[in-house]
Amino acid sequence: MSQRPVTRFAPSPTGYLHIGGARTALFNWLYARANGGTFLLRIEDTDRARSTPEATQAILDGMAWMGLDHDGEVVSQFERAPRHAEVARQMLEAGQAYKCFATQDEIQAFRDKAKEEGRSTLYRSPWRDADPATHPDLPYVIRIKAPLEGSTVIHDAVQGDVTIRNDQLDDMVLLRSDGTPVYMLAVAVDDHDMGVTHVIRGDDHLNNAARQMLIYTAMGWPLPVYAHIPLIHGADGKKLSKRHGALGTNEYRQMGYPAAGMRNYLARLGWSHGDAEFFTDDEALEWFDLDGIGKSAARFDFKKLENICGQHMASTPDAALLHQLEDFLAVTDAPRLTPEQAAMFLEAMPHLKERARTYPELIEKAQFILASRPVQMDEKAASQLDSVSRGMLLELTPQLRNAKWNRADLEAFMNDFAAARDMKFGKMAGPLRAALAGRSATPSVFDMMLVLGQAETVARLEDAGQGGD
């Protein structure tokens, strides 16, 4: 690659970063970072009713959580409106655009008549080739002079060559009668001025590319490389919408999915490198290219997402995972860990992160750490403690006070205790889990005992034996 790429992510602020937008941002970030390029962020905030500072901040927060850092200042499309208007007037002066004085009523009448006669309703302005001397002193829009014959070919890095007949392209409005620029003009001018070399975006923008190319050609600007990526669908094959569950990155964050897992899963959603499903950020950066993006829509699958997230949690160093968990607790306004709890979490983390796919699952497995005496039990755990098992715990606790507190000795002690009562240790495990954690699904009894320490373990078992719940 002779030229270092410049990519951009250009969301409209709607209050949160949609998961489809997050994947678009990720692909742009990966391509720029993988090739030593630049990744820019532009907020398309021309809709002033919806574009609030809070909505913009929600997008920035979503990108920060996803780990997608951008280069340079955030560009506001709205603030660049004078530059957009300037380009429209340059095109007008160069004869690449014209003033159109047609009213909305006249345009609608044209379309109604064309429909009635079975003709194309694509509006053809009578002002396209009018003598400027005949121009009235009335409001006007500036329209581009689209080619009337031939075809426009979009050389797309994902979709291949896409050909659009020029008789399907209208003379689109560039500047409204109030002097404000339209979206198509703003995007093309911003992409050019920002030096964007690769426009990587959803394939719902594919037809827009043909219209934006008209502006590039009229201005004599070099075209960017276009790469239109398929949209994300739900498991039912329909376009992703609220009925499919969480939509914004903020929701996935609140649900406790790790960001590394989200990056991996979204990268794999529509792009592939051989058969690799689980990969690190470094591997994604090494492998990512536009050739690996498929043409067909990808289907969002929560089970696959959870599987990938579980693998990332399992491979994350314990201290780093504890830090991520504490961030999650802060974001969800959950109680923070005390220094003592954090220390126990760190010690227990190798056992907690086994088969945990989200932070809430990690927390559920760590209830024995978060619980305080007397331990509150759920219904299933409480059912483990009948009079026989309580008696066993009361018999066990005095002996545990003198036990050596390491795994090998504890295992030997517990097995001997069980054998003396003609049973296997497995029979004791349920009551012990209930007493220590108030849950029936926990890390191993010995892991919990070692993390809690001798005094706390004995006290909890004694509470349960005496019927304290």
UniProtKB/TrEMBL annotation:
Keywords: Aminoacyl-tRNA synthetase, ATP-binding, Cytoplasm, Ligase, Nucleotide-binding, Protein biosynthesis. ATP binds at residue 242. It comes from the Bacteria. The gene is gltX. It catalyses: tRNA(Glu) + L-glutamate + ATP = L-glutamyl-tRNA(Glu) + AMP + diphosphate. It is an enzyme of class 6 (ligase). It comes from Roseovarius nanhaiticus. This is Glutamate--tRNA ligase. Pfam families: Anticodon_2, tRNA-synt_1c. The lineage of its organism: Bacteria, Pseudomonadati, Pseudomonadota, Alphaproteobacteria, Rhodobacterales. GO terms for molecular function: ATP binding; glutamate-tRNA ligase activity; tRNA binding; zinc ion binding. It is found in: Cytoplasm. Monomer.
